[in-house]
Specification:
The complex is a heterodimer of chains A (about 160) and B (about 200).
Chain A (H helix, E strand, L loop, with lengths): L6 H15 L6 H20 L5 H26 L2 H6 L9 E2 L3 H6 L4 E8 L18 E8 L5 E6 L2
Antiparallel strand pairs in A: 1-4, 2-3, 3-4
Chain B lengths: L19 H9 L6 H20 L2 H18 L10 H17 L9 H11 L8 H13 L3 H12 L4 H8 L3 H24 L1 H7 L1
Helix pairs in contact in B: 2-3, 2-4, 3-4, 4-8, 5-9, 7-9, 8-9
The chains are: A alpha+beta (about 160), B mainly alpha (about 200).
Chain lengths: ~160, ~200
């Protein structure tokens, strides 16, 4: 049997079957089951002992990042403009906004400052992180406002 | 001076949703709520694949749950550098649907046996109406040997590229092509059997 002998009929039927299934969604029971799984996982995380090493590990990076941002803000306030702009190193990526773009457009007095941070901290900005390399440091440049708020970041080669 | 924008999970842009890779990374970091947008985004394709593969709404619903609960606990296994999330999820769905239906990869399948199995599926009376034709085709697909069913459902019905199917099923591109060719040949044989059956002839007359 040549598979191309009846292609129109077969293709027509496959197209009809595909159309028939196009709007098919899982039943509400599946939605509920996944929602319950999310809730349980969230509760498990919340119930975990605050003193446990695991929680400490997860919290360590955001805390370290916040501290770094604080230090950067202080440094920005203390350094003259020329010194700040001279500190900018050649970048290999575009700036990626971490706040709404309109917010960046309003911030006409932002500065670029270099920052070295753990890769895990990128997750806080909504960027993908390979867990296998989460502990490695990465060089970035941060676009920060004088009050220390980070507006965007880019990766430095 | 403007205050920093209060945004617990900073968005990449106010005009775009967080990409799958970013949500998967948050999930891997323990943020279970990141599963919700991923589920809403991909539940349909996973459910439809499982439904077309198994022919059972109950199995498809179970497989959909299985896939996303697996994602909840194994998001760290997903590597965004190796490709988009949806083929990765379909690969997981493929494993779960086989497990749920007790299907195993076997070299014992041969096309002659498969044609007879498909002939048993065909019901000439059902060909009287288009809806029944579609239903008959769906049941014929679930009667295909699993290794043919994989590629047929993924390429023809889930609209995955050959490369994606090769990644999902762990096959060479040429194997995907040849299996799709054989799957279509089996279905064409089934259509021929159906067309030649007395019921079909009488309905055409």
């Amino acid at each position: 049997m040549d598979p191309h002998e009846l292609p129109r009929t077969l293709d027509d039927r496959l197209a009809a079957l595909q159309a028939d299934f196009a709007a098919l969604e899982p039943p509400p029971s599946a939605d509920r089951a996944v929602a319950v799984a999310i809730l349980r996982a969230s509760r498990r995380r919340a119930r975990a002992s605050p003193g446990s090493r695991r929680i400490e590990r997860w919290l360590a990076w955001p805390v370290a990042l916040a501290a770094a941002i604080g230090l950067v803000a202080v440094a920005v306030r203390q350094l003259p403009d020329a010194a700040i702009h001279a500190a900018a190193a050649p970048a290999t990526s575009r700036f990626m906004p971490v706040v709404p773009v309109a917010e960046i457009e309003r911030s006409t007095d932002a500065y670029v400052v270099p920052a070295r941070m753990p890769r895990m901290a990128l997750a806080q900005f909504g960027l993908p992180v390979n867990p296998a390399r989460a502990g490695e440091a990465i060089d970035t440049e941060l676009l920060v406002r004088p009050d220390g708020a980070v507006l965007a970041l880019r990766f430095v080669n | 001076m403007d205050e920093p924008v209060p945004h617990p999970i900073p968005a990449l842009s106010e005009r775009t949703e967080a990409p799958d890779a970013a949500l998967a990374a948050r999930l891997a970091c323990g943020e279970a709520a990141a599963l919700d947008p991923l589920y809403r985004r991909h539940k349909g394709i996973v459910y439809r694949f499982a439904m077309l593969w198994s022919g059972s709404p109950a199995v498809a619903a179970d497989v959909t749950q299985d896939v996303f609960v697996h994602l909840l606990t194994h998001a760290g296994d997903y590597d965004a550098l190796r490709g988009p999330l949806s083929p990765w999820l379909l690969g997981i769905a493929r494993n779960f649907v086989r497990r749920r239906t007790g299907t195993r990869e076997s070299a014992a399948y041969d096309d002659t046996v498969a044609i007879h199995a498909l002939a048993d599926v065909a019901s000439p009376e059902e060909a009287l109406v288009a809806r029944a034709e579609v239903e008959a085709l769906r049941r014929a697909i679930t009667a295909l040997p699993p290794h043919y069913r994989d590629v047929l459902v993924l390429v023809e019905l889930a609209e995955r590229s050959y490369a994606e199917v090769a990644a999902i099923c762990g096959l060479e591109l040429n194997t995907v092509r040849s299996r799709l060719h054989r799957a279509r040949a089996l279905l064409a044989s089934w259509l021929a059997i159906e067309a030649e059956s007395p019921g079909a002839r009488s309905s055409a007359a």
